[in-house]
Design goal:
The protein has 281 residues and is α/β, with parallel strands linked by helices. Helices cover 31% and strands 17% of the residues. The strands form two sheets. The chain has an eight-stranded parallel β-sheet, with helices on both faces. A three-stranded antiparallel β-sheet has the order 4-8-7. The relative contact order is 0.20.
Length: 281
């Protein structure tokens, strides 16, 4: 059973807001510009060592955001990264009442469904302060009108993280094909520049209909952490980090984000030959 979600509701009349109030988002990415990497560091190590460092870094980022702005906006993925990171993160002694937790993407299923990212998270952190105290912002993926759900999630993002939204920290996993969140190579949703949240109706893997933060919202974040485990991710990371022509979603994040910290186990880093790596022990 999925523990009940503690949903956050804005106290600012946002219930009357419409999608028209969400400002256009501009993405300056172009595949023709020179390949100039943003501020980035790439770490390798065993999964256990990496997860411990991820929790340390996220905890530090949360504290810095709260000190600077009085709150922290954090976006998390589902999948294997959530499985590995969310349980130890939920045990961190943080001021969770000042943390707004968003999701990078969601499947078009009820939160009780085994494929729901929010449902997965609530099972992983059940009973923790993260689950009971933090301000949770799950996407409504099971409603009849996903475009309306995307617009309302954009309003939530604007209310918490500014207009246009600037998230403090985004955690991203990576698919074997180089996708991040539910932004897939060659799909129209990847090219969206005006919506904060997009609807993907043709994901390569079921459930095929999803909601996702758009690429401009991801790139605007103050800090991004990309996490990948396993040899199946090696080709995607090799392309993103060592091929200036790569246009996969993860490559676009690496090439255009403000600050990127990349966490790879040895298998995921196995094809990197010209990239500076910092090994964690």
């Amino acid at each position: 059973m999925v523990p009940p979600l503690r949903l956050w509701y804005p106290h600012c009349g946002c219930g009357t807001s419409t999608a028209a109030e969400v400002p256009p988002l501009q993405l300056k990415y172009s595949p023709n510009v020179p390949f100039v990497l943003p501020s980035r560091r790439i770490f390798t190590g065993t999964p256990d060592v990496l997860v411990a460092d991820i929790v340390r870094y996220v905890s530090q980022a949360v504290g810095e955001a709260i000190a600077a702005r009085g709150q922290c906006s954090l976006a998390v993925p589902g999948g294997s990264v959530a499985d590995a990171v969310l349980p130890p993160l939920s045990r961190a002694l943080l001021p969770w009442d000042r943390v707004h937790l968003f999701w990078c993407d969601e499947r078009a299923v009820p939160v009780s469904h085994r494929d729901s990212n929010a449902g997965q998270a609530m099972r992983l952190v059940a009973g923790s302060s993260l689950a009971t105290v933090a301000h949770l912002h799950p996407m409504s993926g099971d409603g009849p009108d996903l475009l309306a759900a995307a617009d309302m999630y954009a309003v939530e993002l604007n209310t918490v993280a500014g207009s246009p939204p600037v998230l403090d920290l985004v955690l991203l996993g990576v698919g074997d094909d180089g996708h991040v969140a539910s932004l897939f190579p060659g799909h129209a949703a990847l090219e969206e520049q005006h919506r904060a949240v997009v609807v993907e109706r043709h994901a390569p893997k079921a459930p095929t209909t999803r909601l996702s933060l758009s690429l401009p919202v991801l790139l605007r974040a103050r800090d991004i952490m990309i996490v990948a485990f396993g040899a199946s991710k090696a080709d995607a990371l090799h392309s993103a980090l060592e091929d200036s022509r790569a246009g996969t979603p993860v490559a676009r994040v690496v090439q255009n984000a403000n600050r990127v910290r990349i966490m790879l186990d040895d298998a995921a880093a196995g094809r990197l030959t010209h990239t500076k790596l910092e090994h964690l022990a």
